[in-house]
User: Fold this.
Amino acid sequence: MQTLAKIPTSITVGDSVAWRVGLNEYPASAGWEISYILLNKDGKITISASADGDGHFVSLRSSETRGYAPGHYRYTVLATLDGDRVTIGSGSIGILPDPLALESYDGRSYAEKTLEAIEAVIANKATNDQLQYSVGGMSLARYTWDDLMKMRNSFRSEVANEQSALTGRNGNKILVRFV
Assistant:
């Protein structure tokens, strides 16, 4: 199993994953313990790091992640020592479903689903479900042509940003800095 340098952006249910946590201010050798609290509307996952010299190490076995519920989670990183607690970080992580347990899966984001519905209305090929699609409390069928075009452009931009974030690219540009 590969050891990552930081918490991953996603974990697949049933996969093993490991990462190191290097926190000079909270060395394990001084007794500091690190834990991650993952929360979403459906539940909570607590992950504890083990001491690794001055650093900390997280190792999750397949048997542990198999019990995770897929979804989008916010996490908080906590450092504790002798009853004192310090919040040292936060972020978000996706728990992806186990591909072996699925027959099908729609992994599109909200922005991708909404963009498809808007484009179907514009192309006059919307299904009944898409005509009833609600954005901001209004059905797509009630928006003016100009509103639909503005929303389409906005959601296209959002989808492009999501895809750039996933690939680690900034559109088609590759940014270089000379030092």
Notes: The two ends are 34 Å apart (CA to CA). Residues 110-165 form one domain. Residues 27 and 137 are 50 Å apart (CA to CA).
